Each structure stands twice: as C-alpha cells, then as structure tokens.
Amino acid sequence: MVIFPSLLKLLTFLRNGYRASLPSVLVNNSIFVRLILDVLQRNMLIVSYSFLGNNNKLRVFLRYFEYKNPFLQLRIFASSSYRVNCTYIKLRRHFLRFPSALTFVSTTKGIFTLREALLLRLGGDLLFEVWF
Questions:
Q1: Structure pTM?
Q2: Where are the beta strands (DSSP E) in the chain?
Q3: 69-99, pLDDT tens digit by residue?
Q4: Residue 26 is part of which domain span?
C-alpha cells in the first residue's frame, strides 16, 4: 500500500524542516499527503501549502512556536504491514489516556484528529501522534 511510505516521507521532511529552522519544505504531491496537510493546517501546525510547477511537488510553509518544535516528539502507529484499528470506544479510551497528544486517525469519512473523530463518533486506523 502506498499510504505508509508517503506518510513516513512527509513526517520526515516536516520534522527535518523544523529541526533546520527552514521556512518551507518540498514534499511529493498525493491525495493522501494533501489530506494530512489539510488536517495539519486546520490544527495550525503548518501555515499553508501550495503546488509547484506541474503539480508533482508541494511547498509546505512551516509554522514556528516560541519554545516548541511540534514534530520533535512523534509516534507513528501505522506501518506497511501493521495497522492499529480502533472502534469509537477504544479511541475514547486512548483520548482519556493521552489528552495532550494530537492524534491523527484515518476513518471512512477522511482523515481527522482524534477529537474530531470522537465528535463525529467514528472509529478508524491510528496514523500518528504529535506531542507538544
């Protein structure tokens, strides 16, 4: 499946860009990457993103916080051979155990943060967590 390598590359590029204090990074364009970037933008972890040239690349503009690197602590759940599928009840338990983490969930209706998935009463696959 193509989801895991593109997710891993995206998170690596973002984390390396933050560590090097770059204003923006270039990532490969795909529907899955754009969905993740939309959720990151909605939660104010990136400023925005734009298409470059013939739409093969995206330029992601990074948002910096005063004393925090948002991608310094990252936990990836999904892999090419293993998925963590959770029902609504399991997601609610996960939220109660780790309320300060921003967890990303792939559901049947799209990619959401854990809070958004709980508000919509959806279950799904855990993708990754970002700790502040």
A1: 0.86
A2: 24-28, 46-52, 57-62, 73-76, 84-86, 102-107, 110-113, 124-131
A3: 777 788 888 776 677 888 989 889 888 888 8
A4: 3-62
